[in-house]
């Protein structure tokens, strides 16, 4: 990516932020969020212990970055979203590099969570040096959720399914 990527701290660009948050949930979780739900996320993601940035490339807002603290001197890359038309151009890589630069001033590490089915993101994070398996989230579906098993992986010699919505 030869274009300059800038992380612009959120400063009341509400319509843009809400639109991106709604696109994030639709793209990653197949959830059509209302404006009110997106506004609640934005309020939480810009509150104490959080930092919300608009990602700009070639003068356009192309996504967002949400950093959060869960206590202690360790920070989390909570959400990263690049609009689909702008993906696979190095924007996510540069955004993470810039986020790490900011966080390393005051923290020892950065944690990232990703849903198991988001293989592209996991491969990106691994390529960028995220190689320590730190925490595991395990889900039990209580009803048919419309997800199908993509494949099984083993952890501690136990089988787990990676599922994706049809």
Give structural attributes.
166 residues, alpha+beta, 5-stranded mixed β-sheet, 4 helices, 32% strand
Continuous helix count: 4
Give a quick account of the main beta sheet: strands, pairing sense, barrel closure: 5 strands, mixed
Approximate strand percentage: 25-35%
Strand element count? 7
| SS content category | alpha+beta
Approximate shape: globular
One letter per element, helices H and strands E, the order comes to: EHHEEEHEHEE
Average pLDDT for all residues: 91
Radius of gyration: 17 Å
The strand line-up of the biggest sheet is 1-2-3-4-5
Cα(first) to Cα(last) distance is 33 Å
Poorly predicted tracts of residues:
none
- Share in helix: 25-40%
Brief summary of the model shown:
The protein has 166 residues and is α+β, with helices and mostly antiparallel strands. Helices cover 30% and strands 32% of the residues. The strands form 2 sheets. Strands 1-2-3-4-5 form a 5-stranded mixed β-sheet, sandwiched between helices.
What is the element layout, followed by pairings?
Blueprint: E1 5-9, H1 14-29, H2 35-45, E2 50-57, E3 60-69, E4 74-82, H3 91-103, E5 109-112, H4 119-127, E6 147-155, E7 158-165
């Amino acid at each position: 990516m030869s274009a300059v990527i800038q992380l612009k701290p959120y400063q009341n660009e509400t319509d843009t932020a809400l639109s991106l948050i709604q696109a994030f949930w639709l793209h990653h979780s197949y959830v059509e969020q209302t404006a009110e739900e997106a506004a609640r996320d934005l309020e939480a993601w810009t509150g104490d212990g959080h930092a919300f940035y608009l990602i700009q490339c070639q003068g356009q807002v192309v996504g967002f970055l949400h950093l959060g603290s869960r206590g202690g001197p360790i920070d989390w890359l909570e959400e990263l979203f690049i609009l689909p038309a702008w993906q696979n151009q190095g924007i996510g890589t540069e955004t993470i590099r810039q986020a790490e630069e900011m966080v390393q001033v005051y923290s020892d590490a950065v944690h990232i969570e990703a849903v198991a089915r988001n293989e592209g993101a996991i491969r990106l994070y691994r390529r960028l040096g995220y190689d320590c398996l730190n925490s595991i989230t395990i889900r039990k579906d209580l009803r048919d959720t419309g997800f199908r098993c993509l494949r099984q992986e083993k952890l501690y010699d136990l089988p787990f399914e990676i599922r994706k919505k049809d």
